[in-house]
Amino acid sequence: MKAKVNRVWTDDTAVYIETSDGKVFSERFENYPRLKYATPAQRAAFEYNDVYIRWDGLDEDLSIEGFMREKPAGNNELRRLFKEHPELNVSAIARRLGIPQSVMASYLCGIKKPSAAREHEIKEAVRQTGRELSEI
Q1: Which helix (H) or strand (E) holds 63?
Q2: In this structure, are residues 15 and 9 in contact, taking their beta carbons and an 8 Å threshold?
Q3: By Cβ atoms counted within 10 A, which residue in 50, 98, 103, 122 is the most buried?
Q4: CATH: 3.10.20.310, 3.30.2020.40, 3.40.30.10, 3.40.50.150. Which one for 5-68?
């Protein structure tokens, strides 16, 4: 039987859940730009059930299941880059570089680690996109 959510709370850096079996899980705001840049009052205005936590005012949802998943190891700069800038289209950057979107996705979710050269190529493609946009 799946554990029920007993309570949910936030502090300055994360949102926490405690389940009926006494386990505590957290997700850091740095992984969710809408929560990261929200005020404490906005972060406190949530509702939850055993499936998700919802911030209507921020249009943000976090699945309870996601709290319990094993997190990818290491500090993935690419994942952070695309998470903090949701206006970047991961598929378009992958196409620009000629790499399959599935490979790009595996880099971002931590399944695969890009080589230093590949990571540089991806960052440079993002920079180039920014330069092109700034010329409009």
Answers
A1: strand 60-63
A2: yes
A3: 122
A4: 3.30.2020.40
